[in-house]
Amino acid sequence: MTATDTIRPSSGTLLEARAARRPRNMGQVIRWLLLFAGGIAMVMPIAYMISTSLKWPHEVYNINLIPDEPTLENYTYVLEDGRFYGWFINSIIIATLTTVSNLFFDSLVGYTLCKFRFPGRTLVFIAILSTLMIPTEMLVIPWYLMSQSFGWLDSYWGIMFPGMMTAFGVFLMKQFFESVPDDFLEAARIDGLNEFQIWWSVAMPLVRPALAALAIFVFLGNWTAFLWPLIVTNSVEMYTLPVGLSGFGDEADVAWELIMTGAAISTIPTLIVFLIFQRFIIRGVVMAGLKG
Amino acid sequence: MAGLALRDLRKSYGTTEVLHGIDLEIADGEFVVLVGPSGCGKSTTLRMIAGLEEVTSGVIEIGGREVNNLEPKERDIAMVFQNYAIYPHMSVKKNIAFGLRSSKMPRADKEARIADVAALLGMTELLERKPSQLSGGQRQRVAIGRAMVRDPAVFLFDEPLSNLDAQLRTQMRLEIKKLHQRVGTTIVFVTHDQVEAMTLADRIVIMKDGHIQQVGTPDEVYRAPANMFVARFIGALSMNILPATLEAGGDVVLASGGRVPMGLPGTGRPVMLGVRPDDLHPQKGGLIDGTVTVREPLGPETLIYAETAAGEIVAKADGRHPPEVGSTVQLGARAEDLHLFDAQSGVSLR
Description:
The complex is a heterodimer of chains A (about 290) and B (about 350).
Chain A: H1 3-7, H2 11-53, H3 73-80, H4 82-115, H5 121-130, H6 136-150, H7 156-160, H8 167-177, H9 182-190, H10 195-206, H11 208-223, H12 227-232, H13 241-246, H14 256-288
Helix pairs in contact in A: 2-14, 3-14, 4-8, 4-11, 5-8, 8-11, 9-10, 11-14
Chain B: E1 4-13, E2 16-26, E3 31-35, H1 42-50, E4 57-62, E5 65-66, E6 77-80, H2 92-98, H3 107-120, H4 136-148, E7 154-158, H5 166-183, E8 186-191, H6 194-200, E9 203-208, E10 211-216, H7 218-223, H8 228-233, E11 240-246, E12 251-254, E13 259-261, E14 269-275, E15 281-282, E16 288-297, E17 301-308, E18 311-318, E19 328-332, E20 338-342
Parallel strand pairs in B: 3-8, 3-9, 6-7, 7-8
Antiparallel strand pairs in B: 1-2, 1-4, 4-5, 9-10, 11-12, 11-14, 12-13, 14-20, 15-19, 16-17, 16-19, 17-18
Helix pairs in contact in B: 2-4
């Protein structure tokens, strides 16, 4: 064998290399196709929502994505309708208060479960986690009965109370507090801070990415919540945006173009929140080892 | 400033006792180093002094006042941690000021004290920086500054130099020593590094398995170790320990054949003869024969690793004319540099 032979691969070797590469390329093609299909499945409802919001009522049931006669009339109608603003404000208040409450209580409980040793700690944590396995549909009846007993039906408090603190939030925050070294807390203890001050002044600033991620999860979850607000509210004034939009139209007909217009407008705040904080969502999901 | 006393201090986790009755008196302004291998209880002792671990039994006194049931903040102590524990979200100034957060001192006085501490530690230029913009040594200085600003009765250091590289460790060691000389506050310093202990301490407390093995000045624990553990633990090079017998005439006879008069009473008692590598040199008519296996030149001296009938031992030879690898040497030491330990208990016999 000459030196050239050893350096330059034979044509057989090249063919073998190409053959070996093909399955990987095929795999890549299949992966891309699946991702593309997934992307289409995700984007289509949004595309149809926007498309329908730009259609006249007679065109709503046409399958075409591009309206024959696009119009902004639906947006004018929805924005001039007084009910929409009321629902929007309700949703803002509820999502904001619930988010603040979750940030406070979830992080407080998560911190306690992470940093304090007390009998039954693991049991409490497992009990909290196990509530994640109970579907919302099973909980609405006890929630309703509770709301009825306390006189919370058709009120902000009635809509908010089941979500003021979540097992997911406690778990997420506990995971993040694991990364805060105990030395920091002990140093603060020696420096004269009480336990609440240590949590607030030392531990909380160190888990800001987690707080941002939790805030986004909770805000989005409450902004889009439908089932419980539908059950607990009776008056149109107390509706949240998803509940109110579902009833847009009159008794004879569902005005899909208006519902889609309202839905399109209501996605704007969530879209802004997501675009600003998306890196925190990714970090939060990665650190908690969870799917959002 | 204040002294510190530990009386029959014990600590148990469940049924396992990890500290078995520590008794120690530390004078006002003294620099005491607790040293020992991992798991010996030195950090637990320090954390109990700080109030971060509960005392199972015994008494801790700071400045003559029992502090067992006081919160850490009420003990008038400050602690520097191994991982610095400086808050990454605060500037250097805020980190240092954090120690004064609960103080009722006027704002102007606080500012003045922060400025004094920063100047003392050479950090005036760094006050507005975040910890992420500092080197390891600078971070450790911030941690020390935060402890100093409170002007505590006792400083506690928990392996503060362990995370630094060798050069920086030497530099910080010197700075801590100078700092102590300047402020004169009582310091309890925990380390597993015997060099740190020897260079920093007024007195060293050597611990093992939750017991104090010996308390003494660096010179005392080096020259007169209380037992074989201390003898091996203290010293940059571990002491050579050779099995021997103490004969009726007071001579010690090595298992490998050498004989040395020690003038101690004994009747065929098994003992261990200890000799530091610094005291063991090639010499005619020496204590033990060996074959040189490795040489480590150190400049003025050369370390010799020699294989003997009693195993491998280390000695020092003149750096200009060290014996060749493979050559046979006789190694000997002055009688006053030899240590004798009971073979069973390991306790020093002289």
